[in-house]
Design brief:
7-stranded mixed β-sheet; Glutaredoxin; D-Amino Acid Oxidase, Chain A, domain 2; about 30% helix
């Protein structure tokens, strides 16, 4: 009976997906991944620091995204990394719709969506029965899917290749930051290379150098939050010929999560399909797990075999991890800014780590470029810290609540969780109580200092500080038009005057519905596709004031 249940239910997909940290050999052939080998720079050859507008520390997904964003805005960038290659293992695997839209503007979104596994439905099981299911994007007509599973090394490969093709970006491998000093005019970075130490000079530095960020350490910034005691095992596996799970439509991959399954009693398990025929499995091990014992490949294989009811699979990569839900005290210290894991860390349940880091870069790129062009004051960079700390607090809250539900710390918490799971199968009110990880969504900032508040009642539609929704247009997508690099004015069924991208949209389209537009409605959209202001009728003076505020000039 159990084997039949497994054959019926372990069937997320017949295709693709991802994971975190070190373990067995990665399934991707190293020769297929681009490198960025060390070479001497002009500073080293001349012995004189060369001033750079922006230096990014860290060549992971966040640093590479920010570099491409700035280059698209004609800002020259140097990216330094202490390695010269892409990291091993799937690590981050789930890329959310907002992140895919950012990638799309940078020229890699369609490739990621094409190579990865698209999904939007998830199912949660309690024991052998389904507790409930959810849909991340129940409405249609969006260019990008709700979620795509693609291993982090494959995403990084696409970003590295795009960076290497852009003459405005210099990617330097085996450059380790060991010292940092700043003054009113800029930042001096002391860097160690195979040829010794040298100094770099930058107007601005962005730390995208991960959870153990040397830059954050050099700044003396502490972390706020907590470290969870529970340990989890990640295993990337490839099933043998004829052993591919069957049962559901293989063209409709899903996220599967079990509480207390028969093949791993008392704990939880998460399953995702990955690209290249891999499957990502996360096993909860508990607080008392012996890490050295659990690392044994034979023990890992036994866990996987018990779940899949077969020994015919290849164990491609594995890792054991604990996770944190915490953030840096500040995201800006003078001319140094923090982004990604250097600024905040969350649990992997909900795919909020890499996605929120890419969204940091999306928020920061246009602001830094505006500063360098003299179009904005430093208040605009202060808004980066304010908005992204709001997002970090939101993500940490979701991750902490998910972790508390997945790993209850008391007998009462365990009883409450069981009651919620039992009720969710047949009572709608109980479904929101079940938390296997709320999946990544962009955080709105209704209190951002860049917003111009509504002056009229406006039921429905995205308010100032909210992310602008996509919608189909004749021959394309609204989201593509909003991501041209500057501010955009949307005018619904009426004339308007704007020294920038002006889109006049009909009132009978899906865009008008999603924006709750009436004849004459106008929206001002920021370069990162966030609503800055909206009015029922165009007003040139109000538009000028809103633009000044959105650039930080009115703060």
């Amino acid at each position: 009976m159990l084997a039949a249940w497994r054959r019926k239910h372990i069937t997320c997909a017949d295709r693709r997906g991802g994971a975190p940290a070190p373990g067995l050999q990665n399934g991707s052939a190293d020769m297929d991944l681009p490198r960025y080998p060390y070479h001497q720079s002009l500073e080293q050859r001349s012995g004189q620091p060369q001033r750079r507008p922006v230096v990014i520390v860290g060549a992971g997904p966040v640093g590479l995204t920010l570099a491409l964003d700035l280059a698209k805005r004609d800002v020259p960038v140097v990216v330094i990394d202490d390695s010269d290659r892409i990291g091993e293992g799937s690590r981050a695997v789930c890329w959310a719709k907002k992140t895919l839209e950012v990638f799309d503007r940078l020229g890699v979104g369609e490739g990621v969506a094409r190579e990865g596994v698209r999904w939007q439905r998830g199912r949660v099981f309690h024991g052998e029965r389904e507790a409930y299911a959810f849909d991340l994007l129940p409405e249609s007509h969006h260019k990008m899917p709700a979620m795509v599973n693609l291993q982090q090394d494959q995403v990084e490969a696409r970003l590295v290749r795009a960076v290497q093709l852009d003459p405005r970006i210099e990617l330097r491998g085996r450059h380790e930051l060991i010292g940092l000093e700043q003054d009113e005019a800029g930042v001096t970075l002391n860097v160690r290379t195979p040829d010794g130490l040298f100094d770099m000079r930058a107007d601005w530095v962005v730390a995208c150098d991960g959870a153990r960020s040397p830059t954050r350490t050099l700044l003396g910034l502490g972390f706020q939050g907590q470290v969870f005691e529970d340990r989890f095992l990640i295993a990337d596996v490839r099933l043998g010929a004829g052993e591919r799970p069957r049962g559901l439509d293989p063209t409709r991959p899903e996220r599967w999560f079990w509480f207390d399954p028969p093949f791993h009693p008392g704990q939880s398990v998460l399953l995702h399909a990955q690209a290249d025929g891999l499957w990502r499995i996360d096993f909860q091990l508990g607080r008392e797990a012996n890490v050295e014992v659990e690392r044994d490949s034979g023990r890992i294989r036994a866990r996987v075999a018990a779940m899949l009811d077969t020994h015919r699979f290849e164990l491609v990569w594995s890792s054991i991890y604990q996770f944190c839900c915490r953030r840096a005290e500040r995201f800006r210290v003078g001319r140094v800014l923090l982004a990604g894991d250097a600024a905040h860390q969350v649990s992997p349940f909900g795919a909020r780590g890499a996605n929120s880091g890419v969204q940091d870069a999306d928020n920061l790129g246009w602001k830094l470029a505006a500063m360098l062009r003299g179009e904005a004051g430093e208040a605009l960079l202060d808004s980066y810290e304010a908005e992204r700390i709001t997002a970090a607090v939101d993500n940490i809250g979701h991750s902490t609540r998910a972790t508390d539900f997945i790993s209850p710390k008391s007998a009462l918490s365990r009883r409450l969780r069981r009651a919620a799971l039992d009720l969710a199968a047949h009572a709608e009110f109980a479904k929101p109580l079940v938390n296997s990880g709320r999946l990544s969504m962009p955080t709105d900032c209704p209190d951002s200092p860049l917003n111009t508040p509504d002056i009229e009642a406006w039921p429905g539609g995205p308010a100032p500080g909210c992310h602008a929704p996509d919608a189909p247009l004749d021959g394309g997508w609204l989201g593509e038009q909003l991501r041209h690099g500057g501010f955009t004015l949307l005018a619904f069924g009426a004339a308007a005057d704007f020294n920038g991208r002006l889109l006049t949209l009909p009132l009978d389209g899906l865009a008008a519905q999603r924006y709750a537009a009436e004849p004459g409605s106008v929206y001002l959209i920021r370069p990162d596709a966030v609503v800055a202001a909206r009015w029922r009728h165009f007003d040139a003076a109000a538009l000028r004031a809103a633009l000044a505020r959105a650039h930080g000039r009115a703060l």
